[in-house]
Amino acid sequence: GAVVSQHPSRVICKSGTSVKIECRSLDFQATTMFWYRQFPKKSLMLMATSNEGSKATYEQGVEKDKFLINHASLTLSTLTVTSAHPEDSSFYICSARPSVGLDYEQYFGPGTRLTVT
Amino acid sequence: GEDVEQSLFLSVREGDSSVINCTYTDSSSTYLYWYKQEPGAGLQLLTYIFSNMDMKQDQRLTVLLNKKDKHLSLRIADTQTGDSAIYFCAESYSGGYQKVTFGTGTKLQVIP
Questions:
Q1: Dihedral over alpha carbons B4, B5, B8, B11 (to 10 degrees)
Q2: How far apart are CA B21 and CA B47, in angstroms?
Q3: Please, what is the average pLDDT of chain B?
């Protein structure tokens, strides 16, 4: 089956530093990947849509200079939280759509817990 | 705009049926989904239904769709303790990047 991994699964960083989260599709190619943020006991909020080889499309209210997204290959997208602050602490989940597949197919990673101290 | 709402909490006894409800507003939705999230984990797609269907059954899961009322439900028969999780309904429409909009999530607690 289609597997999406995220690395790291948990990260603690100091306020003001940057942290990079990787999202990989392990056994399929993904032209499109999505980055979500989930607050405690809340739903998933789409942050941005990442397309291989082009700029990401950010949702309204998401700062593109703070949340840098790079989708350099068909199996890897990265989210870099720059100059992190405690309010950036959250659960970040990525998903990937197979380049060749059915319309509804989208596979989610296990998530990355970010804690900013 | 897109808005997907669910009740926050449901408690059932092991062996009973669970029914989780969801309402959505986007009439252009093509697919409606049910996802399961266990504590600290990502999302697992349980089932999906096309917007032109009324019902879909998959083993213990039954999805009912009322397009007129924009109401979606998930019935879990013979609920087990392993079914305890948060359940999200979600919608997307065909075309574009297939952006998925998630509901608020329902926490299902199964009492042994």
A1: -100
A2: 14
A3: 89
First to last CA, chain A: 37
CB contact under 8 A, B100 and A43: no
Q: Which of A43, A54, A115 to mutate to test the interface with B (most CBs of B within 10 A)?
A: A43
User: Phi then psi for A88, rounded to 5 degrees?
Assistant: -85, -10
From the centroid of its chain, how far is CA B69? 16
Distance CA B67, CA B54 (A): 8
Q: Give the residue on A whose Cα is nearest the Cα of B104.
A: A43
Query: Could you tell me if B29 lies within 8 Å of chain A, comparing CB atoms?
Result: no
Residues 6+ apart with CB under 8 A from B40: A111, A113
Q: What is the per-residue pLDDT across B45-75, written as a single tens digit (0 to 9) for each?
A: 899 998 888 999 999 999 999 989 999 999 9
Chain A contact present for B46, CB below 8 A: no
Q: Which one-letter amino acid corresponds to residue B51? A: S
d(CA A57, CA A51): 8
**Per-position DSSP letters for A50-68, written without gaps between them:** EETTS--EEPTT--TTTEE
Q: How far apart are CA B102 and CA A46, in angstroms?
A: 9
Asked if the Cβ–Cβ distance from A43 to B97 is below 8 Å, we say: no
